[in-house]
Amino acid sequence: MAQSSRDVFEVQVDGLGCPFCAYGLEKKFKEFKGIKKITIDIETGDFRFEYPADQALTAEQVVKQVEKAGYTPKTWTITRADGQVETSEAMLASASSKGSEKGELTVRGVCGMCKARIEKATLSITGVSEANWDVESNQLTFGYDPSKASSDAVRDAILAAGHDVENKKATDEAYDALPPCCLYRTKSKH
Amino acid sequence: MKKFSSILLLGLVALISSCGTEEKEWSYQETVHLGEVRPIGLALTDEGFWISDGDNNRLVQTDRNGKVARYIDSLERPMHLDVAEGVVYVPQYGNDRIGVFAADILQQTQGPGNLDAPAGVSVAGNTMAVADFYNNQVHYKNEQGQWSTFGKKGSEPGEFLYPTDVQITEEGIWVADAYNHRAQLIDFEGQSLAVIGEEQDLNAATGIWVTETEVFLTDFENDRVWIFNKQGEVLQLLDDEVEKPTDMISEGESLWVANFRKGELLKYALTPVQKK
Description:
Shape of chain B: globular
Order of helices and strands of chain B: HEEEEEEEEEEEEEEEEEEEEEEEE
Distance between the termini of chain A: 61 Å
Largest sheet of chain B: 4 strands, antiparallel
Mean pLDDT of chain B: 92
CATH topology of the largest domain in chain A: Alpha-Beta Plaits
Shape of chain A: globular
Distance between the termini of chain B: 38 Å
Low-confidence stretches of chain B: 3-19
Mean pLDDT of chain A: 87
Strand order of the largest sheet of chain B: 1-24-23-22
Oligomer: heterodimer
Radius of gyration of chain A: 18 Å
CATH topology of chain B: Neuraminidase
Number of strands of chain B: 24
Helix content of chain B: under 10%
Number of domains of chain B: 1
CATH architecture of chain B: 6 Propeller
CATH architecture of the largest domain in chain A: 2-Layer Sandwich
Number of helices of chain B: 1
Strand content of chain B: over 45%
Helix content of chain A: 25-40%
Largest interface: A-B, 21 and 32 residues
Structural class of chain A: alpha+beta
CATH superfamily of chain B: TolB, C-terminal domain
Number of helices of chain A: 6
Strand content of chain A: 25-35%
Largest sheet of chain A: 5 strands, antiparallel
Strand order of the largest sheet of chain A: 2-3-1-4-5
């Protein structure tokens, strides 16, 4: 059998809610010239495409492009043309050890995509081991090791991701980079 | 075409006074299952529906019972379409083109300016309007064939936040101002004439359908369809069987709602108001 000349990328994107967001993600990936066979399942968030193997597209580039589009990659698998398989670990999986302190913050957001982004930003802080944001109450709870992490660091990471925290507002630049579904300031002004 | 028709007018007459002063309201009748089709936009002709099937990159023509007559493939994320004088106009979110399907031939046209994810089109006579999603604008081609561009990103009157659908009427261009969660009417020079739905706590007003007296607006995330009069007062809220609605269209005393997620068309009909 002839060897394929294309790598296959499978990314699970958290919280895709509507066709406008899903097709928007696909559109952003068309910036990768040579991309083929793009499929996206809105219900599951499964996003799949093929890319020329000689371009050696990396997982980091893919993750960066998903995030650039305003979405949150959860897991990924790359099946290279030569048969090698690369996989991620679940980026939002709970850590094996729990933090000794519990933190709480009010974080503004409106949807499942906001949840994925807020929790990912929280877990990006070294020393934070668990995070849960509730869409109805807008309450974020997280566990952390106070010798390594702080509530201020969590707050700053979430602000940088585009979400207002307590009485601090994200910059307009960060907010404007959010996908349409996540524009909580227009949604909650009434 | 989406402009008012005599059929719609008849429906409205029925709504107001088919039996003297009898009041009528829209009530759920049946569900038409579309199988694998994920409907986003609806248009209606004598033969039945034209449906844009975004997930499957195709147009689908069905009869009024949902029986497929044919598929038109090779589109890229077709969205809110329109039909005028036998020609189907299809905005394609994926390739920034307006597809024109006539006489069994699909042609790709550039449309106005540098579209970035056109999500809705409306055609009336020689005029055309296009909802330009990522540019947060509405484009309008007048009778002389000249294009104008209206709006910018924002939430003030005359501004848009990811518009997804448009409809040309005699009073102006109605816009599904999706992520401002409202409908907006602008005149043919882009001035805002009315804003509707801001008080109803919609979550993504993704589709719009306008008749002589009513404005239908999808409330995508909340699984509802709102019906307003032109003054913005709520006439009715539809939620029976509605799930992730993307578009609506009416004909006489019938209304169809596209249920995107479940691949369905819901049929509603005008019926006498139930006395409580």
